[in-house]
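Hey,
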Amino acid sequence: MNHFDIQPLNRFVTGESASIRRPKEIASFSYDDAHVFHLDERSLRYYYPPRIGADLSKGFGSFEQLDDTADDHLDSLLKTIIDLERRTGEKCQADVMTWRGMMTKIMATPFDLFNGLIEENHAHKLESRDAQHRQVSRPGTASQDLMSYWGYKFETLSLLPSTWAETSRDYIEGREDLVVNNHAQYCSIVRTGIGKSRLILGGEVDALWDAKPARADDPINWVELKTAATPLSDHDILKYERKLLKFWIQSFLLGVPKIIVGFRSKNGILQSLEQLETNQIPKLVKQKGKGSWDGNLCINFTATFLEFEGLKSIIVGDGVWRIRKKEKATVIEVFKIEESGHGDVLSQYFFTWRSKLGQEHNP
């Protein structure tokens, strides 16, 4: 078993952060309103501000919630990569290919020691979520399920199916009455890099601020939508600042330049909006906040972890490996759990495709 020490953190503190390769979208896919996979942009949405004062609890009883208990591993990401490689005739080269959510957990680890981290363990994910939902809400506070709904309701209130000019006034003004459905998603797949490691990451993006640029090399003006309780005390401000760590990492990894935060009351009434520039958040926390986390340290930590003792030389050949950090642990473990095969982490379809592609490139 290989161990990567998280502490001491000061070894990741340098004058500058590790080199970063700007995320560039190389492919995308959609899930429709029935959560069916499509190799197109049908679920792309556009941002338009919601009405302040909207009740985020409205429609909770008719919420069409996605059942995500099935373990899809990397299937949709890999299907999209196969399609891209077919169209270009070139293999997508990367040291790490995964969902944005996994890389977010790794990058947040220096300032999130209490939570555990297990890569590609679906049972652990479900257990963690169930434990959260079993938590008894304090008297006078909303349930975990309702607070989760508030986030999806805020998205519904903030999104348009087309640009503002192409959307009717009736639709814009009627968004508060729409049934909330979290099945549909637009997922962006980007090529990026941290330090010496090349990454391909996939993740859901909420909306466009305006339109995709004509030139594929130009950055895309994405918007990430988040909700948070309106801070009423120093404790609330610190809690929000810690939330900003995840907000920043999620948007940073996919190249999302703007985050719109909807502040709500404890009863779920939308009270105000704040627009954040993703690249300014670490500076904001350092100069005007409580300094509860450091963005450069997170970047350097991630770069070092991906390279530690040659992570790329540890996870090689056939078999299945696990990356794990136990709750409150100060080390990340990397160990082999299956000596052969790919444990359904890689679909057989992708495995066969890559074998065929390798033969074509090396006849």
